[in-house]
């Protein structure tokens, strides 16, 4: 696998070269300190993979990957970074970037990530995936905390597939009040309709799916 390293720190590039060169069938065909050098190397060497530093001084690794793709370079890309924001991480995922690896990772982790990407799969550092799950869990808890106790009861009733009339009878409120609560639940959770609300309640474990007899 022929690779290019894009990083604006010479010592970091040398360190990455040393690590990568220890792997089987891995060959560094060029090094670049900025995006323009990297684009020229892409034209000259047509590599299989580019290891891209996320923070390149005044430039950004994700912007480089998008520019390289627009120029027709359909090789694989792995972002190497010492830090990454949630928005950058989600952007990398939405752009289907092949991998993200932290610079604090062990050398064998980087080699493993390269091997995974070489086989056509995505590799995202386990530390980052844990961060994504924690962030998602925290956001979901915040969403549910915005519901009043009665709205939460209504959401659970929607998850059980109950009609407005059935909810009204179960909660001892009027159907008009049920409709008002349903509207509030949909608005607060940013859901389109009661079907989505029911699926949301099921997915969050608020209710269990019951087979109709």
From TrEMBL:
Keywords: DNA-binding, Phosphoprotein, Transcription, Transcription regulation
Domain Response regulatory: 2-118
Domain HTH luxR-type: start-end pairs: 140-205
InterPro entries, per the entry: CheY-like_superfamily, EvgA-like, NreC/VraR/RcsB-like_REC, Sig_transdc_resp-reg_C-effctor, Sig_transdc_resp-reg_receiver, Tscrpt_reg_LuxR_C
Domain of life: Bacteria
Residues carrying 4-aspartylphosphate: 53
One Pfam family it belongs to: Response_reg
Name of the protein in question: Response regulator
Species in which this protein is naturally found: Paenibacillus silvestris
Lineage: Bacteria, Bacillati, Bacillota, Bacilli, Bacillales
């Amino acid at each position: 696998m022929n690779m290019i390293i894009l990083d604006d720190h010479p010592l970091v590039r040398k360190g990455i070269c040393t690590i990568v060169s220890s792997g089987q069938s891995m060959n560094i065909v060029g090094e670049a300190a900025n995006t323009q050098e990297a684009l020229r190397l892409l034209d000259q060497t047509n590599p299989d993979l580019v290891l891209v530093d996320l923070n390149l001084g005044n430039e950004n690794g994700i912007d480089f990957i998008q520019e390289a793709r627009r120029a027709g370079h359909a090789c694989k890309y792995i972002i190497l970074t010492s830090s990454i924001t949630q928005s950058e991480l989600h952007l990398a995922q939405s752009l289907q970037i092949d991998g993200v690896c932290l610079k604090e990772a062990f050398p064998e982790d980087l080699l493993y990530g390269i091997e995974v990407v070489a086989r056509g799969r995505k590799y995202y550092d386990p530390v980052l995936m844990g961060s994504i799950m924690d962030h998602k869990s925290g956001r979901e808890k915040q969403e549910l905390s915005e519901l009043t106790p009665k709205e939460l009861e209504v959401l659970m009733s929607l998850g059980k597939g109950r009609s407005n009339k059935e909810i009204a009878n179960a909660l001892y409120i009027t159907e008009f009040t049920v409709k008002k609560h349903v509207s509030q639940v949909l608005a607060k959770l940013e859901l389109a309709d009661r079907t989505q609300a029911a699926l949301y309640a099921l997915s969050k474990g608020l209710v269990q799916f019951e087979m109709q007899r």
